[in-house]
Amino acid sequence: MQRILDELLEDITFLAFGIIFEDWTGLHDSYLEAFFEEEFDSGSAMTSSQRRPMIPRKKIRSWIASVEGVQDPSTGREATRTLSKAYSGYVHAASPHIMEMFGGNPPGFHMKGMRGTPRQAEHRADLWNYFYRGILTFAFAVKALGNDEMFNSIRNFANGFLQSSGDDFLSKEWGDI
């Protein structure tokens, strides 16, 4: 789920920044063409010749990093790629990620969630990060749509949220790490 959220936040930021910074590119056009393309071009999924193009994630991340004014855009792109790869094992069922679901007494695989395990606390502690990034993404979207009043309202809310959550980008639930 975190990987899905990460990519949705990147996609919305990519599109919104293209408008906000008046830097719409062919990459944006290609992204939207692929996004709105029909999945099937015939009455049957099996006989469809449709092959939805995918815009490489690294291109989207590089573009965002370059617009954000990061001194070294490759570092920002690499950080988001690394995070995505870490979550990829959960999406595509890599052994180390599957084995994180094993434990307990008696030992077994947690097939109904990981309630009461250290994973639950880790994800709860990181949840504020997704809330904060989601709030910012809403701000970018309304800014791109030209609603400055709503943008300022959301930005103020984001600032208050960040102040109450901590500005060290670590949840207060982690305590002293």
Major beta-sheet overview: 2 strands, antiparallel
Secondary-structure element string:
HHHHHEEHH
Number of helices: 7
Structural class label: mainly alpha
Beta-strand percentage? under 5%
Could you tell me the radius of gyration in angstroms? 20 Å
Domain module count:
2
Strand order of the largest sheet: 1-2
Runs in which pLDDT lies below 50 for 5 or more consecutive residues are none
**Helix proportion:** 55-70%
Let me know the number of strands: 2
Mean of pLDDT: 82
Shape summary: globular
| Distance between the amino and carboxyl termini | 25 Å
Walk me through the structure.
The protein has a two-stranded antiparallel ribbon. It is built from 7 helices and 2 strands; from the N terminus they run αααααββαα. The model has no long low-confidence stretch (mean pLDDT 82). The chain is mainly alpha-helical and 177 residues long.
